[in-house]
Please model this.
Amino acid sequence: MALRPRQVLLRVGHVAILAVFTVFLAFPFYWMAITAFKRTTDLLDVHADPLWFNQPPTLAHLEELFHGTEFGRWIVNTCIVGVAVVAITLILAIPAGYALARLSRRGGRRLGMAIFLTYLIPPTILFIPLSRIVGDLGLQDSLWSLVLVYPSFTVPFCAWLSMGFFRSIPRDVEDAAMIDGLTRFGAFVKVVLPLSSAGVLTVVIFTLTMVMQEFVYGLTFITSSSQYTVSVGVPTFLVRGDVYFWGALMGACLIVSLPIAVLYNLFVDRFVAGFTGGAVK
Model:
């Protein structure tokens, strides 16, 4: 069956819009890749084509990144902190979100909003009292200081986020499980959590992303370069005064951002469901 001109125009319009958004979203990765493998003379030549190689590509910037800095160590530190903070956030935020979701509607919403408001407090205000706590515990210049501090902003938001998602799960499902002999905790673990896998995945991705991009606390509590995370080590060592090592900077950004981008794309359906599921009754 032949398509009508109106349908053809609509399809062409949809394809054009998708193409524009695809190019817009993919361009930063393309720009990072091009810059990471360009020679310095090519980067600094104002008359050269900025969107392609005017000279043969080079690996010098990546060699400088891995051999001239402790980039590998920073990645390991970031992974250690990320895994620990994700575990703490899941342990605290998921039960808290479930408890808030099962409170009375008015009381649960008010308490959930109060918890969420703590997430909106700027880090520049909180790092002063938190630095006192870190000092009293003797955790200065230690990755454990970040593991202690980061949940202060991941747990409130993730508890509020999971609360909305747990509300979309009917109480009847839990009641049926408890009639079959499960305790409330057993129903939560064996019934509610499997149904809320999208929300749990959302919490994991959000927490990991926040840990990888946080800068203020990492710069405040860590002084040794060997203990830096990626978000602190890269700008500290690759930006010296008004000199920017663009090739190495873009190489570091590309290496760090690609895994997160792949993770988002692999689980994009569940990630979107985690953010929107709580709004559906």
Q: What stands out?
A: The domain at 71-223+265-279 is CATH 1.10.3720.10 (MetI-like fold).
